[in-house]
Structure prediction request, 210 residues.
Amino acid sequence: MTRDPDRLVLFTDAVVAIAVTLLILPLVEVVAEVAKEQGDPATDPFAVVRENWPAIISFLLSFAVIARFWLVHHGVFEHVKAYNNRLIQLNLLWLLCIVVLPFPTEILGHFENDRFSASFYSGTLLVLALTQTALTLLIHNHKELAVEDSPVTGRELVGSISFAACATIAFLLAALVPGVGLYGLLALIPSGGLARVVSGYRERAAQKSQ
Prediction:
């Protein structure tokens, strides 16, 4: 059974907006707690920022991550004309990862050098990337779900797979290599270039076959 995707897209956008909002709430609470504890109008407000910079960096990182995944999700769903139960299930798993992300973000803000913290965060991103790839593959392989004159492109599919592969490397580095921590996320940077190289190779191979 297939249905119009508008309701699913609206629900997804609403959940993402709530998750992004939740990211900033711990920082807002920190300011309120410091003001209540110190109660001194002469207290330097910059000290609050200086003492909580790891949490601020974690917030900015997670905001960028959620924004990136939402943009990719939005682009993929531009091709969707209907949805089925499998698409709903994958989309709910994708949303679960988005909603969970503020939790490892908060842990990172307090235990930024801990291997478990980095592994938890990287692992959440990995599941999110794999789910995004599964969504893209499902829409690509089921023509009844996609708009006839606007299917998922090979470049989009390769980009999603490339990012998932780099996310796997980032997770393994964070989980298995001592001292790497969040620096393992640098493995995500080459994903865009890798996708362009693979897409270019596929396009040249397709042209030669013709």
In short: The mean pLDDT is 83.
